Amino acid sequence: MSGKIFVNLPVQDLQRSMGFFQSLGFRFDPQYTDERAACMVVSDSSFVMLLTQPFFASFTAKDVADATASTAVIVAVSQDAAEDVDRIGDAAIAAGAQRAKAAEDASPMHTRSFYDLDGHQWEIFHIPPTPA
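^ thats the sequence. predicted structure below, dont judge the formating
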């Protein structure tokens, strides 16, 4: 089975959230971005939809979780090199994110974890390829 994945996250201030993720090196697809939603490109087949709180709420009958008070999902994004993990982790903190836990360098995985501006937890990680 193959397909694209779209992770939908509610945000309080769409423009502020877009600026935050752009400062980490992510880009947005203008074809799927408007005043209520922004399509952040993670890879050719992975995307994060940042949705204004009211727009996000229109897709569910449940209450929208307060990500600053509880964790319902951890968004994990792999990188090609440990240096990229550190660059993104450092940029996130510099742009206002909160460190979720200490950096990990458990062999062989290298990880940086942070809470974005809306409290969503992100794990940026690198696992070196296994030798053939």
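The CA atoms of residues 23 and 42 lie 14 Å apart.
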